[in-house]
Task: inverse folding
């Protein structure tokens, strides 16, 4: 008997093919989707603030949503500019200090390593003069040479730089339209769901929203508190680069494990270069140990909840896998998609455990 498909099966197959084609198109257009993905994530995080402002009344008048959106975007841009103006000048002024400390650091390293290698029967002669000269020249390029390199890069890859700047300027515009019509977009998406799946999809969407709300909005508070803690603690310990290292450590906590590891590495380098003996290293160990305990046992449980409920190895794999597949866009999407997949897997597991396939003993 010839194989034939019913009308419903043909419709399902058609939309399955369309869905696969759309996924393939998203993969092909990955690089150009970065501003849209960034704007969408920001819109999701900032929409509650816009809703709150739009409900405010000034006398007899309610604040227009468009004005509320402009206020929120302006505050976001001002916060980012303030961060840049705080962090960058400190790094530029402390770079000469790092350059001056390198010879001393290399002498300490040689005095510590060489006797121990000699005791093991390994005699290695380090060309300290050559290493010092090389590192000093590289750091010295942070002045006029670095601008020469930047200008040369602009001439060589001008189109890429213009594309990057265009995307950077494009994000606020996309963000404005998304925030302005956020509820209309959500209702339009809800209206496209097949009617027989509306109930299930709505329940799953609410679960995903709860997970992402806990993670994204709660994580902002965790980042702010940790940035203040690390900056203040490193300043009390008299680190010269306390402000930029503390701010970066707090803000990069948003990327699991990477942010803390990078901040710890920068602090250890600063400790070795600035302080004699083990004083700086002990200070870093105490500060970052307390910070990690605060984040893991106090801030995250209280402000973020259970996050997205994924094992740390799964989070690391998701960041690496999505970053490899989609670049920067993949890193932005890794945890939100992981939250969505965790909800889907939970529902599939529940359906599987209640199915006759699982429960049948014959």
Result:
């Amino acid at each position: 008997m010839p194989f034939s498909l019913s009308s419903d099966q043909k419709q399902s197959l058609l939309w399955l093919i369309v869905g696969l084609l759309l996924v393939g198109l998203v993969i092909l257009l990955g690089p150009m989707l970065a501003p849209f993905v960034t704007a969408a994530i920001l819109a999701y995080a900032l929409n509650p603030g816009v809703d709150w402002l739009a409900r405010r009344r000034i006398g007899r008048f309610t604040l227009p949503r468009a004005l509320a959106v402009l206020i929120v975007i302006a505050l976001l841009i001002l916060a980012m500019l303030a961060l840049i103006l705080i962090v960058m000048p400190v790094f530029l002024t402390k770079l000469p200090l790092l350059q001056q400390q390198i010879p001393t650091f290399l002498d300490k390293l040689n005095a510590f390593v060489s006797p121990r290698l000699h005791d093991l029967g390994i005699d290695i002669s380090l060309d300290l003069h050559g290493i010092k000269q090389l590192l000093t020249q590289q750091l010295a390029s942070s002045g006029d040479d670095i601008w020469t390199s930047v200008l040369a890069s602009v001439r060589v890859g001008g189109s890429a730089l213009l594309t990057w700047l265009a995307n950077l300027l494009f994000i606020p515009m996309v963000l404005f339209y998304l925030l302005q019509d956020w509820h209309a977009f959500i209702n339009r998406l809800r209206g496209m769901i097949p009617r027989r799946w509306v109930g299930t999809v709505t329940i799953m969407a609410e679960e995903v929203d709860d997970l992402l709300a806990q993670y994204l909005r709660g994580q902002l508070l965790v980042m702010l508190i940790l940035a203040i803690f690390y900056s203040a603690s490193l300043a009390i310990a008299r680190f010269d680069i306390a402000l930029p290292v503390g701010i970066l450590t707090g803000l990069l906590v948003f990327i699991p494990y990477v942010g803390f590891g990078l901040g710890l590495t920068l602090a250890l380098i600063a400790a070795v270069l600035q302080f004699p003996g083990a004083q700086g290293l002990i200070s870093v160990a105490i500060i970052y140990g307390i910070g990690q305990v605060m984040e893991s046992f106090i801030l995250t449980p209280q402000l973020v909840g259970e996050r997205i409920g994924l094992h740390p190895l799964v989070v690391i794999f998701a960041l690496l896998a999505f970053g490899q597949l989609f670049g920067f866009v993949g890193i932005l999407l890794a945890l939100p998609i992981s939250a969505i997949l965790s909800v889907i897997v939970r529902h599939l597991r529940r359906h599987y455990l209640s199915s006759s396939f699982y429960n049948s003993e014959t």
